[in-house]
Amino acid sequence: MREASLMSPWTLVRSNPRFRRLWLAQLISLGGDFINQVALSALIYRLTGQATMVAALALATNLPIFLASPWAGVVADRYDRVRIMLFCDLVRAVLVLGLLLVRDAQTLPLALVIVAVTETMSAFFEPASAAVLPSVVTAEELGPALALSSASWSTMLAVGAAGGGLITAHLGDQAAFLANSLSFLLSAALIVGLRAPAQPAGEAKPLHPWADLLEGFRHVAAHPRLGALLLIKFSFGLGTGVLTLLTILPLQVFHAGDAGVATLFSARGVGALAGPLLAQRFMGISLLNQARLAALGVVLAGFFYGLLAVAPILKLAALWVILAHLGSGLQWVLSTYLLQKCCDDEFRGRVMSLDFAGVTLGMALSSLLFGLAVDRFGPHSAGVVGAVLLASFGLIWLVVFGGWKRRWFT
């Protein structure tokens, strides 16, 4: 059974001023994030020469999100979501200025601490942002809104990565860190004017962190398809240690410097932009087939990352990155869309925070192990093994949705 046809994302931007503010805030903030990511990851590798330290950056980015996200979901279901987002933006704008003090290997621990605290704020921002989205768009607008939000993430990854390479090469690391701080301030300025309806349920209830958190887990346990969608993201995260190749290959194998890192990060953005645009074309098909396509996206990501691991030149590597992230973008948008469709608003903050926590836990563990593997076995061998692992997770979910548990979405 097909769902109703979906409106154009650009029609949505023109016609819905509340969504337009939310979208622009996301766009600006993401651009700063990716400028910062390229500059900091390249700086860490230059100062240490170790893939393990680049993986430590990924760990400092993802582990705090995993630890804070469940509580962030409870907060998002109990308090004003717009105010949560505003507070997080302002705190992050101040925190990232501390990166200006990172000048040598001895100050790298400071960078990791700043990143960890900043990402803790992100852990509270993201569930609030995801939970507020259905209250600023109609049911008809939800699909295009999710597709556009994901496409924006991808676009700003490409633009921000390229900008990060250019800013770092011509103005230095500190200029990139300042740009990231400014992006949070601009995002906050847009969020100040955002007026979203109050949550119809949960907002007036007193906060009981443990009880509310357990209530969210019980809700997921009572709805197996929610659990399945959360596990797709978690298993995808477990295979994403191969993303460390985006920094290691240009610096260690292709000897292309910061510009090479920016090239592969930009290629990731191009592919992840195509994925959401492709995903929107399938939002009218059945929930079951959407779940199957999400699993197929994981398989495609693993396959093309395997080719990336053995790519002989930077240009070919960029092509494989584009195709890999077309698959990951397809997975990301469809699984997120299904979560939004299948989740009650009273639990949406907690469910979306569990989604965020699961994928970041997988990414943290995978990045650390992959960094150690690169330092011991080299990027080619470690990359092939990591890519096979990622594709295997997708194949498992194809089997699950292909027949074993198809009733979850029928």
- Helix percent reads over 70%
Form type: globular
Order of helices and strands: HHHHHHHHHHHHHHH
Annotation field: number of helices: 15
Taking pLDDT < 50 over at least 5 consecutive residues as the criterion, the unreliable ranges are: 1-5, 199-204
| Rg estimate, integer Å | 20 Å
Distance between the termini: 10 Å
Which structural class do the helices and strands define?
A: mainly alpha
Topology-level CATH name = Growth Hormone, Chain: A
Q: What share of residues are in beta strands? A: under 5%
Major sheet: size, sense and barrel closure?
none
* DSSP strand count: 0
Secondary-structure arrangement, i.e. CATH architecture: Up-down Bundle
What's the level 1 CATH class? Mainly Alpha
Number of domains: 1
Q: Mind telling me the CATH superfamily name?
A: MFS general substrate transporter like domains
